[in-house]
Amino acid sequence: MNILVLNSGSSSIKFRIYTMPHEELVAAGLVEKIGSEEADIQVEFRGQRERLSQPVQNHEEGLQWIADFLTERVLVDSTLDAIGHRVVHGGEEYSQPMLISEEVLDKVNELAILAPLHNPPNAQGIQVSRRVFPQAQQVAVFDTAFHATLPPHAFRYPIPNKLYEQYGIRVYGMHGTSHQYVTKQAASFLDKPMSETNLITIHLGNGCSMTAVKNGQSVDTSMGLSPLAGLMMGTRSGDIDPSIPFFLSNQANMSPSEIDQLLNQESGLKGITGENDLREVLKLRAQGDKMAQLALEMYCYRIKKYIGAYMAVLGEVDALIFTAGVGENSDIVRERSLAGLENLGIELDVEKNQEHLSGIRQLQRASSKVKILVVPTNEELAIAEQTYQVLSKNN
To answer: Structural domain of residue 69, as residue ranges?
Structure first.
């Protein structure tokens, strides 16, 4: 079965195609800068990488380009059977991947109020895919689904009940597909059933989140109603004093939309240094930039605080898991985030940490009570797996 995985952003479409259930990656690509005269298109196919620039005015044109590429060069003697769509927010309604119906699509659009930067392009990707790939079955895989197991004392906010009952204001969490995937991989690596595995999973990219996993299930997570809460991120503030938006409104005469823009797009690493990419921040730090040094300290300090909190939640922890672009590749972030945690049984082997290797690897000293793992995430493969499972049950 050929399954196309789509991750539609506001100005980009990331795609991969797998042959399932063999998990063979057939092709991968990225269409960026949609809406411009010089959209950037990158593809990998049969060991070759290609890159070109051409006008792509909208998502429909981008998906049509992907369809033509797959038809003419990838699926010459076969067909596209299904498409798995990454959808950021599924609310309380969807705790499992779903075959996409009009009802499901309407709900994805409705939930845009909770994920305004993500659900609209996700929904647009679904709508356009149905026109461009009419023969393919469509499945939505929700980032929030893994966190559906949060208990009420973890997902409720201490605000009036009517706000939860009428508007669904609660912790939903994000990056669930990644947290679930690395949990499964870590349990296998540790040779333990998922149902007996306790982990703290640390997903660090441009967006960052952490999850407390008890017996294979999410029981707490750092993102909340939206992807804004929790850790310091590339452009998002993470946790702040809830009174700050009111202060900005009253004292700086900022509108709600301006405050939303500030906290989601102009804060985090970018707010402190002017750069949202940690690699650029580390370059500035190496040049002696004091604000870059401060940003790194803030970034790692928040990770450390959540580690402590989640160790208290879990009681017994088998391993800490670092994943995603920063988590997998930045030895300095891992070292700074774990410094001083020896009394909690977390002892990092600095030399192992500085080795740049691929695959799952252990970074703890022999005497460490808690294992420290780097587990590469693969959200696209996880979406393909879940899409295949849904279709296997329904066909």
So the answer is: 2-142
